[in-house]
Amino acid sequence: MEGFGDIAEKLRRSTVHVRAGHRGQGSGIIVSPGGLIVTNAHVAMDRVDVRLWDGTRSEADLLLSDVGRDIAILQVSQSGLPAAVLADSDRLRVGELVIAVGNPFGFMGALTTGVIHAIGQVPNLGPLKWIQADVRLAPGNSGGPLANARGEVIGINTMIAGGVGLAIPSNSVSRLLNRRLSPAPLGVVVRPVQITVKGRARLGVAILEVRKDGVAASASLMPGDILIGVEGGNLETMEDFERALDGAGDRTVRLQFLRGDPRNFRTVTVRLGLPHTAAA
Fold first, then answer.
1. What DSSP element (H or E) covers 190?
2. Residues labelled as active-site residues
3. 124-127 long-range contacts, Cβ below 8 Å, gap at least 24?
4. Is 96 exposed, middle or buried (0-12, 13-18, 19+ CB in 10 A)?
């Protein structure tokens, strides 16, 4: 069985330093030996240069960015890299030991430990789910891994709020990686918003952009529409929306949405995988 020192060292070797033009610097985690790296979207908003643990530098291509969830996927032209393993963040429990690695103030591979305080939404940060841990983060830690005691990545460190470190759950990262391998199910760019329906605040998913060749366009969904439910159930978190669209194959999903008047509820049945739809 590996000792803590060995686990920590492997995690440090999988962590990279990310510099984006003149905007600043952060961290990233290698998730594929073929050069896939995950970081924060706010870290990778410019031309990106990556430095590996051994000092090797490489320009990185931005493959995919989810600004709403603050995740980005980079690709470097390297192979045989020490990739970390993404764990199932849905299995996390409050009180678990966690390890954070990053490059605060440019110092490579700085490591800190703590425990998970909570998992869920954070006041004033919208409907997104966060892993909240008492790890010590500083400028430059953004985009680095939060791992469990086995060294498996369970989150991507993003910010400090109320003295607690906040990390994006690894399952959100896995969904974005899967989206890279197949077209976005709906072909839309979305952003979570808070809306009021019948006097009650609830989550909505605002459509910002509709791809012309996507399922949403075939369903006559438009920018400005706000998705509020899937299969008749309310959306409590963005993860609910992402899970509803997960999975491969030809299948139908009923979406509830608002257009204009908040009392104007509509339903559209979209057929994922094929451009066939029926709307009401």
1. strand 188-197
2. 42, 70, 142
3. 125/161, 125/166, 126/192, 126/194, 127/192, 127/194, 127/203, 127/235, 127/236, 127/237, 127/238
4. middle
Burial 32-70 (b: 16+ CB within 10 A, else e): eeebbbbbbbbbbbeebbbbbbeeeebebebebbbebbb
The more confident residue out of 43 and 194 is: 43
Residue pLDDT, tens place only, 131-149: 999 998 888 899 999 999 9
CATH superfamily placement of domain 185-279? PDZ domain (2.30.42.10)
- Is the C-alpha dihedral spanning 174, 147, 151, 55 positive or negative? positive
Chain segment 85-124, per-residue pLDDT in tens: 999 999 999 999 999 999 988 788 899 999 999 999 888 8
Tokens of 122: 């954070």
- State the average pLDDT for the chain: 85
**Torsional class of 25: left (φ above 0), alpha (ψ -120 to 50), beta (otherwise):** beta
Contact 13, 53 (CB under 8 A): yes
Residue 274 identity: L
With CA atoms as reference, report the closest residue to 181 among 52, 73, 46. Answer: 73
Domain ranges of the chain: 4-83, 89-173, 185-279
Q: Are 236 and 203 in contact (CB under 8 A)?
A: yes
Report the 3 state secondary structure along 19-42: EECCCEEEEEEECCCCCEEEECCC
- The CATH superfamily of 89-173 is Trypsin-like serine proteases (2.40.10.10)
Q: Distance between CA atoms of 191 and 214, rounded to whole angstroms?
A: 18
